[in-house]
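Incident log, structure service

09:12 report received: a user says their structure output differs between two submissions of the same chain.
09:20 pulled the input from the user's history:
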Amino acid sequence: MKKIVPAFLLACTAFAMPMRVSMAQDAKLAPIFDYVKSDVTPWLNDPAIIEAVKAQDATNANLSAADIDALDKKWRAEVDGSDHSMIDGVLNNALSKFLQAKKEASGGKITEIFVMDAKGLNVGQSDVTSDYWQGDEGKFQKSFGAGKDAVFVDEIEKDESTQTLQSQASVTISDDKGTPIGAITVGVNVDAL
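09:34 re-ran on a clean worker, output below:
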């Protein structure tokens, strides 16, 4: 029985924290995990999130890898360019307004929030992201890719744009039947916890 318990605990923490971090780093990530579970996951069932993700999942169901790549390239060009029509379309949608309000209500604990569809494409966000497709990144693969109820807390790093110590926590978003439909990533200001 003693051999089963440690294996079980390792399996449980694999979803909560990256495998590559040390025990000291795990202790630093625990408050972030706790904050996300207590303060973020309760609003993941809000219709503002669920309906927006479902709608984009339906719209993007038949996108090819080439289509996704083209959308991501367009987004990246807009980040550095003068035309921001695609970015503005996402930043000004109802879900982004909802996420901007959640960020503001966090009292500085949340530095950014973005929601992704089942392909890893941005559905809504509080701030501009550097790319549109998150599907090739750990934040998406270790949340949505891990299935229902998955939570992935990434390493703590200094965010150059905000000059704060931050960790990104990502959670799978599921519909009312428990089917994963997308994911959310929340930048957490470690100093504010």
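09:41 both user submissions now match this output. Likely a transient worker issue. Closing.
09:42 reviewer note: The helical segments are 4-16, 23-40, 47-60, 65-80, 85-91, 94-105, 138-141. Residues 1-24 have pLDDT under 50 and may be disordered.
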